[in-house]
């Protein structure tokens, strides 16, 4: 795979200046600090970390929504154009973003069909029949075709997130970035949305970045996982290796905070921690 075919984030940093207050001068805050990674076509990267780790800012930079302070980002061998330009709007069609709060991402007055249609019309001018086919095909893929004429208030949280996903995917993007896309949903609904995303990725050949504070979710959906802490990626590996043999102390801390699924799982985890500690002492 050529590096130019996928997403390439190289030495990216993002700084924010805090507000000046009485007796407190403005300061420079580093949200993302010299981060690099590549995402191959069709691959799935999970980005995990606690609140304030910089993962959402990194996701917005990777999507071209936010501009990095330094470093470079390219997708398909092309650097993102100036935000708001015609070239940038064309590039954004190929990279779509799903936010945490689906209710805040939709127009409460429009039926779901019209919301998906509005997103499609913003990027493509299609014949009436083709336009209708694209919209209904996507609503069918996410399981909402029978609810197409309902407005957001008539949908559950999970159904609304499905609608937001349909609106993002109707443009046929090559990369989908999900920022805490299931964190506001009940556990049973989370599983449904995660399984939907896995299915859609396979059907549509999508690349995906899944940003979450929940390591269990990241493990289920991601091929590779990057752990962020204080704006930096402190560890990155394939999901199985990272969960079974974490190298960084911060990664081990996050993994230790995951509730065990059963007493047997808890005993196995405690035994593994003891073995790792003994190995360190012997070394």
Main traits of this protein?
single chain; 283 residues; alpha/beta; Rossmann fold; 2 domains; six-stranded mixed beta sheet; four-stranded antiparallel beta sheet; 10 helices; 23% strand
Please give the largest β-sheet.
6 strands, mixed
Proportion of helical residues: 25-40%
CATH fold title of the largest domain: Rossmann fold
CATH architecture of the largest domain: 3-Layer(aba) Sandwich
**What is the rounded Rg?**
21 Å
What class would the helix/strand composition place it in?
alpha/beta
Order of helices and strands: EEEHEEHEHHHEHEHEEHHH
Q: How far apart are the termini?
A: 39 Å
Mean pLDDT: 87
Domain count? 2
Shape verdict: globular
Molecular structure report:
The chain is built from 10 helices and 10 strands. It is α/β, with parallel strands linked by helices and 283 residues long. The strands form 2 sheets. A 6-stranded mixed beta sheet has the order 6-7-8-3-9-10, sandwiched between helices. A 4-stranded antiparallel beta sheet has the order 2-1-4-5. Helix 3 crosses helix 4, helix 3 packs parallel to helix 5 and helix 5 packs parallel to helix 6. The longest helix has 20 residues. It is globular, with a radius of gyration of 21 Å. The two termini are 39 Å apart.
What is the secondary structure topology, with strand pairs?
Blueprint: E1 7-17, E2 28-39, E3 44-48, H1 55-63, E4 70-75, E5 78-79, H2 86-93, E6 95-98, H3 112-121, H4 128-141, H5 157-169, E7 175-179, H6 187-204, E8 207-212, H7 215-221, E9 224-229, E10 232-238, H8 239-244, H9 249-256, H10 263-282
Parallel strand pairs: 3-8, 3-9, 6-7, 7-8
Antiparallel strand pairs: 1-2, 1-4, 4-5, 9-10
